[in-house]
Write a structure and sequence with these properties.
Blueprint lengths: L3 H8 L7 E3 L5 H11 L10 E4 L9 E4 L3 E4 L3 E4 L3 E12 L5 E11 L4 E4 L8 H14 L17 H17 L6 H14 L3 H13 L8 H10 L6 H20 L7 H10 L3 H16 L7 H18 L3 H4 L10 H10 L24 H5 L8 H37 L5 H35 L4 E2 L1 H7 L6 H8 L2 E8 L1 E8 L5 H13 L5 H24 L4 H8 L1
Antiparallel strand pairs: 1-2, 2-3, 3-4, 4-5, 6-7, 7-8, 9-11, 10-11
Helix pairs in contact: 4-5, 4-6, 4-7, 4-8, 5-8, 5-15, 5-16, 8-10, 10-11, 13-15, 15-16, 16-19, 17-20
Length: 562
């Protein structure tokens, strides 16, 4: 093992209780410790926190980094300056003649200073702690801080290029071609990883030239990733890679499946377990759930909480699978803002989740009671979808750039005296392939726009409310415009009744216009909802009066009254 950072992360949990290892440090604890221990300048290097407080605030205890430990009572100790660590258990008599036991750790520095650590370690096994520190100072000589909160898009181009090439290899080896849907997913991933222009050129060239004879070995590509990234990131990169492989593979198969040959054949090279693969699959499935009509912000919260629980059970940092962003098109930054808006403690400081779920926020008061939060409950979903559309639009622009590059290359070859027919043919095929990918990405963008616009329209229409709000002669065409996009369906909610439900296949532009109409007429405003509910209740009361008097209509009632 060549990294003290990795050693600490993998072994520190054995020395006691109430130890939290990055990236699974609850955000509140992390922030408390950063402030209490003065770690503002190097908080991204924190590997673990031992919380010595009874209530769990993490304002006292020990912070571990790749260079040092910081004890809340005894200060900072650099590994490179420690000469020895000893566990002591002294037995002595107190003033009353009773035998007492005193446990402590004796740290001696290379300068000859001695420190007796006995307080602030209530939940630690002091003997194991001493052994742990001794292994650090005896097995390692290179002590350095490593950024534990780095997302893949912030890593160097060499890592990102090798990562992309592994995925391109997978799309090629199964049938020796890269189809339009696979190409679309490759381009979307390149956008999320924020590849430089030079890096994109290398990827584009690799896609253009790939063949059975020109394919880079997986083991060499993994070695490039490892040699250009910090050891404590390797596991997360590989788990993220498995997630992206599964997603791209499933793009043409229609189902998300981990049992495809490429993954199974290279599982040992990726150094991932079956549990980690299964968790990556669960993440892909969870990401796509966001597009379902019935999934609102509360359901997204619930799904993420369940995913976090599965991550804990599988021993996988949930941050690992989101190292490259979300497979549906969210960048790591998009995940950050989305989860933060949901009230989830997946803060992803610096791009990586510092897990731990906070309490779920709930809507209260009149909005909740009247149903006026019908749009509010989709706010985060809408924000995420708009971020996805933005990323998708950026991908479209990059593909257009690539197509222009290929066309220029074809033109250059045609102008040459010796026309290279095979090269031209290959480039023309690539142009067609890129155009196919462009169409697929554009279809995705339109699909996302459709979902965003559906959010602006009630799934179940309050037809009485719509009638009231469009009762003016000039507004009646708006009622007709909307109602044709709804259909009557029978639902059971205590008793069976018919309601107007939004049709599945409504064009995106129509949905957008409907959303504007609902907003303009005030369909979701609290006052209009209350009017509608009040009128509904009065109508029910009136019907009851009709029934009691044996009258069938309002006109009959007026005649009875006369």
């Amino acid at each position: 093992m060549d990294s003290v950072n990795l050693f600490i992360k993998e072994n520190i949990s054995s020395i006691g209780k109430k130890i939290y290892v990055t990236p699974n440090i609850p955000e509140k604890k992390l922030n408390n410790a950063i402030r209490a221990f003065g770690c503002e300048d190097f908080y991204k290097s924190i590997l673990a926190i031992y919380d010595d407080t009874f209530l769990g605030s993490a304002k006292e205890g020990i912070v571990f980094t790749g260079e040092k430990i910081i004890h809340s009572k005894y200060g900072t100790f650099y590994y490179s300056k420690i000469s020895s660590v000893k566990y002591r258990k002294d037995i002595f008599e107190d003033e009353k003649g009773k035998l007492k036991k005193e446990e402590y750790i004796l740290i001696e520095t290379k300068d000859g200073e001695k420190f007796k650590l006995k307080e602030g370690m209530v939940y630690l096994d002091k003997e194991k702690f001493a052994e742990f520190l001794n292994k650090i100072i005896s097995k390692f000589t290179d002590y350095r801080e490593e950024n534990q909160l780095k997302q893949l898009s912030d890593m160097c181009d060499d890592v990102k290029i090798a990562y992309m090439k592994i995925i391109i290899n997978m799309t090629f080896v199964d049938d020796e071609k890269i189809d339009n849907k696979e190409m679309a997913e490759i381009f979307l991933l390149m956008t999320r990883l924020n590849l430089s222009k030079e890096a994109r050129f290398k990827i584009r060239e690799y896609i253009t030239e790939i063949s059975k004879d020109k394919i880079e070995p997986i083991d060499k590509l993994i070695e490039i990733i490892k040699s250009n990234s910090e050891a404590s990131h390797h596991k997360s990169i590989m788990i993220s890679l498995v997630k992206d492989l599964c997603n791209v593979y499933s793009s043409t198969k229609g189902t998300i499946d981990e049992q495809f040959d490429f993954l199974q054949n290279n599982k040992e090279l990726f150094e991932v377990t079956d549990e980690e693969i299964n968790f990556a699959i669960e993440t892909v499935k969870n990401d796509y759930k966001i597009f379902r009509d019935d999934v609102d912000d509360e359901i997204i919260k619930k799904n993420v909480k369940e995913l976090a629980a599965k991550a804990g059970a599988a021993g996988v940092p949930i941050a690992a699978v989101y190292l490259s962003g979300s497979v549906v098109g969210l960048s790591a930054a998009g995940i950050t803002s989305g989860l933060a808006a949901l009230g989830l403690g997946m803060g992803m400081t610096g791009g990586i989740a510092v897990a731990g779920i906070l309490a779920i926020m709930s809507y209260k008061g009149i909005k909740h009671l009247t149903g006026a939060n019908e749009l509010d409950k989709y706010k985060t979903k809408e924000m995420m979808l708009r971020e996805i559309i933005k990323q998708t639009q950026k991908t479209i622009s990059l593909i257009i750039d690539d197509i222009n590059y290929l066309v220029q290359k074809v033109n250059t070859l045609i102008k040459e005296e010796k026309i290279q027919k095979e090269k031209i043919k290959k480039l023309i095929n690539m142009v067609a392939q890129f155009q196919g990918a462009l169409k697929n990405v554009d279809n995705k963008k339109n699909s996302y726009r459709n979902i965003v616009n559906r959010i602006k329209c009630p799934k179940i229409l309050d037809e009485e409310r719509l009638k009231q709000l469009t009762s003016d002669p000039t507004k009646k065409p708006l009622y007709n415009f909307i109602i044709v996009n709804y259909q009557l369906q029978k639902i059971k909610n205590g008793k069976e009744k018919e309601v107007f439900v939004l049709k599945d296949e409504v064009p995106t532009d129509i949905l957008e216009d409907m959303g504007k109409i609902f907003e303009k007429i005030g369909y979701f405003e609290v006052s209009n909802i209350l009017k509608s509910k009040t009128k509904g209740k009065l109508s029910d009361i009136t019907k009851g009066v009709f029934k009691q008097k044996g009258v069938n209509n309002e006109r009959g009632l007026s005649e009875e009254c006369r």
